[in-house]
Amino acid sequence: MEIPENVKKRLSIPAEEHFFAGHTACQGCGASLGIRYVLKAYGRKTIFVIPACCSTIIAGPWPYTALDANLFHTAFETTGAVISGIEAALKARGIKVKGEDGVMVVGWAGDGGTADIGLQALSGFLERGHDAVYIMYDNEAYMNTGIQRSSSTPYGAWTTNTPGGKRHFLEKRHKKKVIDIVIAHEIPYAATASVAFPEDFIRKLKKARKIPGPSFIQLFAPCPTGWRSPTDKSIEIARLAVQTAYFPLFEYENGKYKINMPSPKKEPKPIEEFLKLQGRFKYMTKEDIENLQAWVLHEWEKLKKLAEVFG
Amino acid sequence: MAESPFKADIERVQKEYSEKMTPGAIVYLPGSSVVNKTGSWRVFMPEFNRDKCVRCYLCYIYCPEPAIYLDEENYPVFDYDYCKGCGICANECPTDAIVMVRESK
Amino acid sequence: MAEYKPIRKVVSGNYAAAYAVKHARVQVVAAYPITPQTSIIEKIAEFIANGEADIQYVPVESEHSAMAATIGASAAGARAFTATAAQGLALMHEMLHWASGARLPIVMVDVNRAMAPPWSVWDDQTDSLAQRDTGWMQFYAENNQEVYDGVLMSFKVAETVNVPIMVVESAFILSHTYDVVEMIPQELVDEFLPPRKPLYDLADFSRPFSVGALATPNDYYEFRYKLAKAHEEAKKVIKDVGKEFGERFGRDYSDMIEKGYIEDADFVFMGMGSLMGTVKEAVDLLRKEGYKVGYAKVRWFRPFPKEELREIAESVKGIAVLDRNFSFGQEGILFNEAKGVLYNTDARPIIKNYIVGLGGRDFTVLDVKAIADNMKAIIESGKFDREVEWYHLKR
To answer: Which end of chain A has fewer CB atoms within 10 angstroms, the N or the C?
Structure first.
């Protein structure tokens, strides 16, 4: 079913669909929505590199595939290295990469495959300056292997290897700031995005296409299965994550910070609004919540200052 | 439902690929996931009230499958072959034109 | 075919490999430095710097990423190459499986170096042989000429059967020792090795595809069988390419095992790599003294030349297998594989394992003579002293 022309004009996101239903993502999966948006932004002339993660399964077992684009499955820790190799090959063959009509090389890895095991390859990719895009879809744990904690899991969260219990053995470390590590490489473009704000995400993807050099986008992608949240609340949770400044949306472009959302002039919503929708936070005590709220506000202050000084 | 560009070939998938394994496990059929009718996963299904719809397109934008498409009059069309019943469309709809009801099979 | 006028250069094994990479018109090299491979990538960088070669060089941050980047480049249709040794090869082990499973015709030079601990940079075959199950084909070079020829032929063989190949040379003995190598003019290499026609190309969007997806137990078995079949088919391709190489350039490689004096030998020395160069010298000297000896130099360890070995075993009374490697809890690797190949046949030569030269300990003509004396005594008495001899053990 083609979308009629008059309707296409009214849509705030591209109408072309290169992602097909019938894939095996859970109900309400943020990651599958993320792939859908990336394909809308970049179209068929995209080379996707997907390491071992939920998306490996979502993309389809042999002989099926849900993507209308080229897809190379690779080992867990290698996303950054494989996109580097592909980009080098395209350059060697004289094929245009990035830019208006160039081929887009996209590394699509989860938080585990980026912040933990894939960090070395990511750092190499960023440091060498390849013309490709690395997107880390952040569902805040190793979801594909059954909801184990990763360095991106927030303070106080339940996971299968921080299951709470009598010893209150929950995640006791704050979320690793991958975006700060990436920005430390001083690449031309880095940004955070959320599936609740698809126009913003697609705008950033299109920007990444235009800016030469390595681009990095951290996408907040809720996982109802791992977060113990109702499947219909995924977008609402992704929206609240931004509005509480837990996951602010901002861009780093050529050394300058720009905050997109929430507005620095207003107070962000209290973190409880974000926490109460998710079963993984139900074991948190009052102190835990205060600890998390303090961390959120502290990081938010840091970001606001950076945007002021380097805006 | 968006048409897979190689829809006619997809019927060939199960037969040809099971007989002729491709080296390296290559799949040359983009969109072949459509053979898997995930509509069977549903417990709840979205019930659409056209009169309340203001054509904001949020349901179309936020469907993760995607199983919602738009017709010539710009109203959403639900593809129940693939809708998994997650309920995001109903939750995001600003006019309650979509309500999740328990499906009776 | 234009007339072949070789260009003679005095180069090390590593430089020979670098020249072969240049002549093969490799498009992407992603490598991480490790002794004693470094001069390969240094030479390649020199070629790029002075405009002699048009190669995209990716200075990756580890060997694991080196193989991953090479895999990405090969999947995107480019002719890709990398090089490593010992620890680096071990680090990229996971991706070696990936390269063969994804059916990518990557060529890699492995400089045989001892595995740590204890640290050692010297010649030892355990590193490459420990990767024998990864689905890669393996070619062992005896001298710098074979390194050069091996890389050129490997690209042709790999791109025909879509299986990656490692060309193995000895640390320092070949990698850093200078020797005369006959190189082939570029136009003739281009005739021998045309541009690559990839099995699949990520830069081709006419019909989008995915590679390497999940395969259930219903399908996985057949995928592995396909790779196994490719190894079997490769044997014929190796022979054909080796023969073509001989016709074009005068050096024939159609034998997967290079044989010497098999017809009138009581026993033969069997081994791989540079130590066989020493053996060839020694065999000539021993034959002058009346020893009835020969040699069987195994060029290709994977695919293993079963038919050739069985033929040799039928015409000799003994085989002294020289292993510059060891599989702990078992025995020398070449010995173990050769013995296994002979079991289901009637050939029953006396076959004994000599573990020599681990960690680069010098293996000389005198050592070959001592082993020859030992083998002679065993054959004459008909009794083994021991099956596995740690020949070089001093203390």
So the answer is: C
C48 alpha-carbon distance from chain centroid:
26
From A12, A22, A64, residue closest to B38, measured CB to CB: A22
- Structural domain count, chain B: 2
pLDDT of residue A8: 80
Q: How far is CA C246 from the centre of its chain?
A: 18
Domain of A166, CATH number, reads: 3.40.50.970
Same domain, C201 and C272: no
- The CATH number of the domain holding residue B44 is 3.30.70.20
Is C310 found in the same domain as C194?
no
Per-residue tokens: C7 = 């260009």
Tell whether B67 and B78 lie within a shared domain: yes
Rounded to the nearest angstrom, the minimum Cα separation between A266 and chain C is 43
Cβ of residue B39 closer than 8 Å to a chain A Cβ: no
Over residues B88-104, the pLDDT tens digits come to: 999 999 999 999 999 87
**Does the structure show a pLDDT above 70 at B7?**
no
Indicate the Cα dihedral angle B70, B72, B77, B82, nearest 10°.
-70
| A contact chains, 3+ CB pairs < 8 A | B, C
Q: Which two tokens stand for residue A265?
A: 């002039």
pTM, to two decimals: 0.95
**A258-293: pLDDT as tens digits:** 999 999 999 999 999 999 999 999 999 999 999 999
Please state, rounded to an integer, the average pLDDT across all residues of chain B.
84
Give the gap in angstroms from C-alpha A112 to the nearest C-alpha of chain C: 17
- Give the range of the structural domain holding residue B1, as residue numbers without chain letter: 1-35
Its ipTM equals 0.95
Burial B57-90 (b: 16+ CB within 10 A, else e): bbbbbbbbbbbbbbeeebebebbebbbbbbbbbb
